[in-house]
Amino acid sequence: MKNEGMPKADFIMGLFLMAFSLLVVIESLKIPRFEKDWGGFYAAPGFVPLILGITLFIMSLALFVRAVKQKGYNIIPDREMLGHFLRSKPVHRWCLAMAYAFGFFFLLGHLYFYLVAFLVLFAYMATFGEQSRLMSLIISLIASGMIYIVFTKVFLVPLP
Q1: Is pLDDT of 1 > 60?
Q2: Start-to-end C-alpha separation, the chain
């Protein structure tokens, strides 16, 4: 049995991921290269994001082409389909996950990184995890403590 996939979703995600990967490539090329100080383009801070952006673009292009071959461009939804989509649990979970992610970025400059990491980890685990709230609390505390130890003590990276 051949896997047909989801051509309409693949078409939309292919377009979205191609646009996002092009943005990553453009922004990675804007990062200062420090070629004289760091030994060339391959040691530049933007090299890895450039490679990841190009790789993501190639994979999303393949997804997009496959979706076009399966006529995924026929995506005009009717009112009933749109209503089912907006009322679906996965959409609500995705919106909540995005709210947590944006909350992390907005809180980052106002609270200590470790506290924000703890809060967001706990929020994700308490909302989407299958373990108890106490276990989520313990795991979040340990994980944020490990973030502190690994980055500040081992790698000597100052976090905000």
Answers
A1: no
A2: 51
